[in-house]
From TrEMBL:
Sequence ranges assigned to domain Cas6b N-terminal in this UniProt record: 3-104
InterPro entries reported for this sequence: Cas6b_C, Cas6b_N
Domain annotation Cas6b C-terminal: ranges: 109-220
Name used for this protein in its record: DNA repair protein
Length: 228
């Protein structure tokens, strides 16, 4: 069990999904690259392989940030600036807050199941992709994806320094979509999935590859109902 601070901020502007990398770059440029938690790159060692605690998203086509744990404290380096003007794809945007949700949640393995959707989930690396395409039945593919999703949740747990002491269970209820998207010029398989899990996960959390860039965003089903 772990107490986790979360901060979700949605700005009053428009942002298409393909513009998320530019939005991310604009925020990083604003705060300075010396603030490593904003971009996970160390000038000497290159990419830092750890779960991102500051994540950039387009939620309802609005630029959004999800901050977790240390990321909640770190994001004040942006909000403490004199202005929040950023340049996204060469266009100046004066960001204003549309919605702000700050919570202190209990992350734990519970006895009950929670239901989520996950969109544009990049579940497969090169090795797992080869395994996936060689599977003949949908059941086998779902079993593999459930294992990978469990691994993504455990990576999130490690990133927030939560020691998981009970088995995490994941059940994919519906494989809604499978599509090819291009990320950094490379074609990747992205999945849209409905699943249940015995871990309570923050809304808009990113799981899987490129979670900080708006991929693998989960939505709690109560949030989906509220927006219908």
């Amino acid at each position: 069990m772990k107490k986790l601070k979360t901060l979700f901020v949605q700005f009053d502007d428009t942002l298409a999904a393909w513009e998320i990398p530019s939005f991310r770059g604009a925020v990083i440029e604003k705060v300075g690259r010396e603030n490593v938690l904003f971009h996970q790159h160390n000038g000497k060692e290159g990419f830092i392989y750890q779960y991102p605690v500051i994540q950039y998203k387009s939620v309802q086509q609005k630029p959004s940030l999800l901050c977790l744990g240390d990321g909640v404290d770190e994001i004040h380096k942006f909000f403490g600036l004199r202005n929040w003007d950023v340049h996204i794809n060469g266009v100046k945007h004066a960001l204003k807050i549309h919605r702000l949700d700050m919570n202190n949640i209990t992350v734990n393995v519970w006895e009950k199941q929670f239901k989520y959707s996950i969109q544009n989930w990049l579940a497969l690396n090169e090795v797992n992709y080869q395994k996936y395409v060689q599977l003949n039945s949908l059941k086998e593919k779902v079993t593999l994806l459930e294992r990978l999703l469990t691994g993504n949740i455990l990576s999130f747990a490690k990133g927030i320094e939560w020691r998981v002491e009970k088995p995490v269970t994941v059940a994919i209820q519906e494989l809604k979509g499978e599509k090819i998207i291009r990320y950094k010029g490379v074609p990747l398989v992205a999945f849209d999935v409905i699943f249940s899990c015995n871990v309570f996960l923050p809304n808009y959390l990113g799981l899987g590859k490129s979670a900080s860039h708006g991929f693998g965003v989960i939505r709690q089903f109560r949030e989906l109902r509220n927006q219908d």
